[in-house]
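Lab notebook, bench 4. We co-purified these components, and the gel suggests they stay together. Before we commit to crystallization screens, I want a quick structural picture of the whole thing.
Request: model the full complex, all chains together.
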Amino acid sequence: MSEAMDAPLAVASDAETTAAPARRIGSVILDVKNISLAFGGVKALTDISFDVREHEIRAIIGPNGAGKSSMLNCINGVYQPQQGSIALRGQTFRHMNSRQVAASGVARTFQNLALFKGMSVLDNIMTGRNLKMRSNILQQAWHWGAAAREEAAQRRVVEGIIDFLEIQAYRKTPVGTMPYGLQKRVDLGRALAMEPALLLLDEPMAGMNVEEKQDMCRFILDINDEFGTTIVLIEHDMGVVMDISDRVVVLDYGRKIGDGTPHVVRADPNVIAAYLGTPH
Amino acid sequence: MGFFLETLLGGLMAGMLYSLIALGFVLIFKASGVFNFAQGAMVLFAALAMARFAEWIPQWTGLTHPVAATVLAFIAAGFVMCVLAWVIERLVLRHLVNQDGATLLMATIGISYFLEGLGQATFGSSVYKLDIGMPKEPILVFDKVFEGGILINMEDLYAALIAAVLVTGLSLFFQKTGTGRALRAVADDHQAAQSVGIGLGRIWVIVWCVAGIAALVAGMIWGSKLGVQFSLATLALRALPVVILGGLTSVPGAIVGGLVIGVGEKLSEVYLGPLVGGGIEIWFAYVLALLFLLVRPQGLFGEKIIDRV
Amino acid sequence: MIYRENGQFKTSYAADQQIFPVLQDRIAIAVLLAIAFVAVPLLASDYLLRAVLIPFVIMSLAAVGVNVLIGYCGQISLGSGAFMAVGAYGAYNFLVRVPGMPLVVALALGGLCAMAFGVLFGLPSLRVKGLYLAVATLAAQFFADWMFLRIKWFTLDTPSGSAAVSNLQFFGLPLESDAAKYLFCLALLALLALGAKNLVRGAIGREWMAIRDMDVAAAVIGIRPMYAKLTAFAVSSFIIGVAGALWGFFYLGAWEPAAFSVDISFRLLFVVIIGGLGSIMGSFFGAAFIVVLPIALAIVLPMIASLLGISISTTAISHAELMIFGALIVAFLIVEPHGLARLWSTLRLKLRLWPFPH
Amino acid sequence: MPASTFPQLLLEHARARPGAAALREKEFGIWQTLSWRDLEALVRALAHGLAEAGLQPGQHLVVIGENRPRLSAAMLAAQCLGAIPVPLYQDASAAELAFPLAHAEVIFAVVEDQEQVDKLIEVRAQCPQLARFWFDDGRGLRNYREPGLASLDALVERGRAHAIAHPAFLDEKIAALSPESVAAMFFTSGTTGHAKGVVHTHRSLIDRARAGATFDRLTSAEEVLAYLPQAWIGQNIFSYAQWLVCGYVVNCPESAATVSIDLKEIGPTYYFAPPRVFEGLLTSVMIRMEDASAPKRWLFDRAMALARRVGPRLMDGLPVGAGDRFLYALGNALVYAPLRNTLGLSRVRIGYTAGEAIGPDLFSFYRSIGINLKQLYGSTETAVFVCSQPDHEARSDTVGVPIEGVELQVTESGEILVRSPGLLKEYYKNEAATREVLTADGWYRTGDAGFLDAAGHLKIIDRAKDVGRIAGGAHDGALFAPKYVENKLKFFPFIKEAVAFGDGRDKVCAFVNIDLEAVGNWAEKRNLPYGGYAELAQKPEVYALIQDCVQKVNADLAADAKLAGSQISRFLVLHKELDADDGELTRTRKVRRGHIAERYAVLVDALYNGKTEQFVETPVKFEDGRTGKVAATLKIMDAATYPAVEKAA
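Here is the predicted assembly.
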């Protein structure tokens, strides 16, 4: 099983010797300071500040239209906030484009699936490895050694993810034809393929049935646990998030109205007000 | 000096025609999101129809009055264009609702091929003379103001005037009338439009008719100048940069763009052409538009496009 | 039905990722190549070679190029004719100006010229999308038309910008006979098509498709739109350029700028639409279609006409051809936007699942 | 002298053909291959590891999980040390595991993954002696801090170290092994009572494996897909004993979800499955064909009609007209061969169905499309191979001729006795049970009722104890063979399981389990809305459908005077699927009639005292181990029976 042995993602599975590197909350990895964002006149975010610590699961919740997605888009460089700064592992940046953010180890999934419809599950996840690919266009054209080897090596990593997300049976199906719940997994897989230090999940459970939600929760916890990935996830319904996240930020109308551990937040009157005030 | 003004004027007059064609593009794009590549073919088709009807109607009806014949021919051709619009909506557009722009564009290229074929098959493919009684001899004006004066080609002037009238008419129709507003509603949001009970199909037929008439007029004018022939189809391609320049969704854009391109072409041809071997008006407009795109992708008056995730 | 896939299991990624993983397909392709390279040159008549096969082969090559850009990277281009022209005149100039310039090198250099030209006119794609881009590429077309007509230097100051090549040879072997020309073009086609296939199934291909399918998401996972789009333009226009050179050298022999007018751009667009956007194989289907249809019509229409007891002129036939092309484009866009290639793959799938429907 | 223990067989292959593939596992998208050389190395490392961990000769090593190369290797490793591998069912609940673990005083276990680990941790309380266990796949186990828990990787590492320290150790151990020493123990789920540990020696298993191999001329070129539980001796013989005897390749599927895909890819040459698998396959074929276009359906139906007529005869090498031969060849090109391909059975040279009797039509379907499907007869206690059908003599109603080394005799009561080198050594720690089945002069009581027919083929009617008699009523004293009846019912794609009652009663009545997939599909075709299994089961339309099936069966039974009495006069459709977790089926999915009769006593009574419907409430166990109750009111329906047809003798 030569090929099976050298997997970057393959879980080091000796429970006796591993001193659980995961789940030990570390230092601040992402620090968002006084972010404000506006489209034309419309203010999407006003003076938002919060931080994310290494290996933690950080939830950003809030009613629909609270500015959650905008926040995410600021963090990974899709939008450029007008004010404020975002520090990633200590280094501050105002204007970083998506690629630079991606290159510095931030991956994300999308609320309304942004998969590459025309491609298979395998290829979709493979795109997540492109940053890691080095062979030049000529080598690829003639499938010369380097390119071929690289392709196989990356495929191996991607297979690790497919195995992890339990979608082996769909490997070569075009994503467009798959059930919604599974497409969400592929979206997650594509992000995982980047081996991110920080993983942003935009409403990972939106539009899922209970069973699918449970699966997704399991995957999120496993990712955080197996790979020690820091996770920032957005959800608009509190229930699911509270169980799996370490700390929660609550947004409403683009402002931060709460921040803390789930039970603290749950008790916060402002939060309760915001939620009672908005229909679900 | 006089020569410059002359060129400028010529450019403006040519530009009016471009504006007319461009307006056709804009109307259709606004209302149906279709970038109608077939506009050129429609010009050719309309011109052919017009020319031939003008020739046939006297034979059929035996009426000799030239003006009446021309008018009848115009009406007949206009009718044909409307039927065409209806057929296109029926057979093509309604099957491609909610397709992306690229697909629709390619579809219209298909349509334009079809029209070129059909037009020449039914109306013949040789060069036809089309006389709508526009004065041919130029007149000299401002010869008092500075020596040499300015030579104005009356035909162009009339052409420009007709075009101008039509353009203003269309813009008014588009901005003021109920149907016009309906068109704009559709343009802004198909679903919404349908929900308030504006029939997409009907709207589309209307805009295509309007575009057809615009094409007819343009074809008629060009036809009477250059004779009705295949090259009219490509002539209309020259109006494309106008749309790019003016912005696909903007009526004023189409007008301004048309004038700019018209003038630009003439000036460049006259002052730049000799330096590089002439004939540059074919591409100059395009390159102009292209450079402009790099600066302002949505055109002079087009709305900004924002990607949402 | 003909497929027997039991026991065709893969023990390595190389085996699993090969272009034709299924044995029966590999056999079919091998047979096809054998026919194309051996049987055809031996059996085909000169007329067949000259009027059908050579244009088919070259059109296929051009279509592969166009497909890379439009089908895989989703950038609409109406400037293919221009790229062909640049390729043709580029190769022509290198061939006649540089003494002792080998044909293959000249072709490659022609391709590189086209590549440069393509990248230049591809720049707008960084700012504009879809329709605007389509029009932008038209600029390339008209500019090229003008350039080769008016700038005499390119055409060695021949009147009307006509160019002609003669006694071409490939490392000493004369490429005079139609069979020789056919084989030469076919070899190039095979080579470049393989290259293109490898690209589209590799990392860069995935980047192109990612940009095509969902550019925002692509950017977020670290794909540079600029790099992806420009490489697509480069690869595409290189291949189209070579095809253009072949078209001039081996199909036309002597040509004028008009040979690469906007009309050919449109025809290439049809080829990829009818053949199938985003499919290398589709390019071949489309090319075959566009080459064979006119000939077929020229034969069939008069028959029909004579049956109806009317005589039909050649111009009428050309008009009918236009109409049929037009109608087909629309029909394909409505009924099967993925073209013949999709029809083929559905058929293949059915054969693999036979007797089951799905 | 040929190798006489499994470890020796392994070494022999590793010596003779080191590079050849021994095991393949589909993992990470491709078939990762393990050569005999690799396998030997792995086994040695594991053996050393286990030895160092303290596994002693005669001790048991429990193995739980799907078919995985490293689990097979672990079994070999245990055998190297003279210890006894005990494969258990991976879908058994923790509670069910408790008994064997305690009974066999298990100290060491090797399991597949988190799921199994959790179960072991759960039962540790009941089995304190369970000291150490290792897992193959560490997913989710990263943070387990369970004493004695470690990964196989770790075990292999320690083993390698130990091997360096004690180079000669293992080979001595292997040399010391005697063929008579115990090779493995299998727990028979047993249709009643506690499971019994069936003890087999190297000799018994290898002898039977060889006998079977020579009977079917198996070679080292065979491909086998191991997709059934190792704990089932069938699977174990095919993908372990015969694997080592013949040295062919055993392939492990990627996951339970991909078995059918993997089957297509591998295309096994030597295939075996219990009838239910073939049933499922056929059902899916029929369902998929229902959506086919009319001409295709027509072609398919014509081809199948032809196949039914000629196929079996061709298979049995009987004379067939030239015309039919030609048509069949045509049908083969157009339908049979492609069908075999899509089923993944193109390359099957020898196919076996075992474990249960198979419906005649089901059986002949596969033979008719050119798959050499045969039956064999045997049990855990006989190391499978007792009788087997020669290639051209396959019948659905017999189980073939006694094979090499087997003696048969039938007692006057009709029970079959077997004597062969493959008989069990004993039931583990169960003298009484052993004495029950093994006679002093070495005969084994199969507990099956049957007889050798004229052609010398063994014919099984039913379990000896289940064969009953009708008491009173029209068919007083008539023979009642419940299994026979149930099988006839179960052949219909719509019927998943059936339980027939009638011994000592005046008529035969039956429970029926509908097949959700088949009936569901049927319902959608007629757009009948239904909320779930229970609701669908009670639809009058469904009852009508099932009634039709039952009456077809009755007509069949009536055709045979001896069995006419077994016709079903009343039936009901159960509201829940019979489930092993509720003890209604054995792990090999045999119905536990007695248990069901108790569990659903109210229903049985209702059937016999003429009620037309009956309320019932049953406790059920859910997948996650929770328990709950399901209640429903079930309709009861009559079915027409037919007078026995007297055969013109």
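The domain at 6-13+36-177 of chain D is CATH 3.40.50.980 (Rossmann fold). Worth comparing against the SEC data before the next meeting. Chain D touches chain C at residues 24, 26, 29-33, 223, 251, 264-267, 285, 288-289, 291-293, 296, 299-300, 334-335, 337-342, 344-347 (CB under 8 Å).
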